[in-house]
Design goal:
This is D-galactarate dehydratase. Strand 3 and strand 4 form a beta hairpin. Helix 3 crosses helix 4. The protein is α/β, with parallel strands linked by helices and about 170 residues long. The protein folds into 2 domains: about 30 residues; about 100 residues, Barwin-like endoglucanases (Beta Barrel). The chain is built from 4 helices and 6 strands; from the N terminus they run H-H-H-E-E-E-E-E-H-E.
Length: about 170
């Protein structure tokens, strides 16, 4: 009896595949497109004002980092106003094609100016803190330019101290 029920269940699932019936979840909905190639009229993300995107074919940290030495010096400057400690976070490299000095972190709920400090080198960098929709311990993604100013190895997970700056 058990074998007859098992055989009927197998036939009930297998036979519709032989008849060409369009049963959802069993391959009957395969004529729908799975993915579409973006066309010329597809909106693309806009570059941030005042930032230069990396050149096509960039394949090194130097090529992706489009900041000037003057911009790096300004970002490494010591702030004049007191900072407010937001906390410590484990940081990793963010999108290297997104230029500028920024940190995507769950420690803020709105965009604001900030500063990151790497204790191993004692260096700090001024950044734009951007909110990240994640739990507070989820870590922070940091721009290529900011990590280079801090002297952080680009492939490392590094603990940074995050401060909010007075606007």
């Amino acid at each position: 009896m058990k074998h007859a029920i098992g055989l009927m269940a197998v036939l009930a699932l297998a036979l519709p595949g032989c008849t060409g019936l369009k049963i959802p979840f069993f391959g009957g909905d395969r004529d729908r497109p799975v993915a579409q190639t973006p066309g010329a009229d597809t909106p693309r993300p806009a570059a941030r004002p005042g930032s230069t995107p990396p050149p096509p074919g960039a394949d090194s940290a130097e090529a992706f980092d489009t900041t000037s030495s003057a911009e790096r010096s300004a970002a490494a400057a010591t702030p004049t106003a007191p900072d407010r400690l937001l906390g410590k976070t484990v940081a990793s490299l963010g999108d290297p094609a997104d230029p500028g000095f920024w940190a995507l972190t769950p420690l803020v709920d709105r965009p604001q100016p900030g500063r990151l400090v790497y204790a191993a080198t004692g260096k700090g960098v001024l950044v734009d803190l951007r909110p990240r929709a994640a739990a507070a311990g989820a870590g922070t993604q940091v721009s290529l330019a900011a990590l280079r100013v801090l002297g952080v190895p680009l492939t490392a997970l590094t603990e940074l101290t995050v401060y909010a700056r007075a606007p």
